Amino acid sequence: MRRVTQKIFLLIVISGLFAFFLHNQWSKHHFAFSSLPSDDLKSMAMFSWLRWDSEHELDGSQYSPLASQAHRKATIRSVCDEHNLTRTSYVLDRKVAAQLYVEHSHKFLYCEVPKVGCSNWKRIILLLNNSLGRTPGDLKHYQVHGSKQLKQLGAYPPEVQKQLLANYTKVMFTRDPLERVVSAYRDKFLHVDDVYYSKTIANQIKRTLGIDPKLNLTFEQFAQFIIQENPSYRDTHWKPMYELCDPCSIKYDFIGKFTTITEDADYVLKMIGAPEDLKYPTIKHHSNDSRTGEDLTIRYLD
Description:
Blueprint: H1 2-15, H2 18-21, H3 38-42, H4 47-50, H5 54-57, H6 65-82, H7 94-99, E1 100-103, E2 108-111, H8 118-128, H9 141-146, E3 151-152, H10 158-167, E4 169-174, H11 177-189, H12 195-209, H13 219-228, H14 241-245, E5 254-257, H15 261-271, H16 294-301
Parallel strand pairs: 2-4, 4-5
Antiparallel strand pairs: 1-2, 1-3
């Protein structure tokens, strides 16, 4: 399992994902550092400046959504420049446009990142434009993800897309990538009610890896599949966040984090002039499951 963990870790580092999600507490865990060969450690010199400042980001008594933005945006710019990911002449990728949701009444653009509270953000958008329900709890999971009232930026002509990107408040939320991978596995492959993933996709993965289809898909096998699959066909639930939202080319007005989602979401709602009584909900699809946090993620990766 450790070899798989090393590969996942290096995959994330090389791709630049840590620019947006690295939580400084992860640097304390052996699976992130001590298990890696010295040559690999040399290639990760950027850790010293990619880590979120613990006093600034993690202490709830001092945390400020507004104050966090300068640090988060500077981190993104640094990594984008380091890896030459910023394009001077930019045409919005159709896959990125499909991740951006438009809410016209509040001039709001939200980039959907699965496993980072996206279902609840869709509830917020539907309530903002008075499409469905009166409270977040009125909107069931299938209504949220199947609603035709949700408008994607990709549905508009390129010139309109450009205008909306220039004039609307653009927001994306991020999550530690290792935690997000574990969350995707638990949500999609440990629940038989989601037949598409627990059966169809799981069987595809097992065929790819040459695994007995009668056996349950383990996390280690899922991780191995992510490492070797064709990136062009990667599912959005575990596709790298920078590929989903392209923060190197799109200048987001607010970068939120899953660890501070309540404070960040409240700040965003104030930014766009949402009704004062509208709050970001804490609704979970599988309400009886514990949240995939740091401790649980460590158990999966150890």
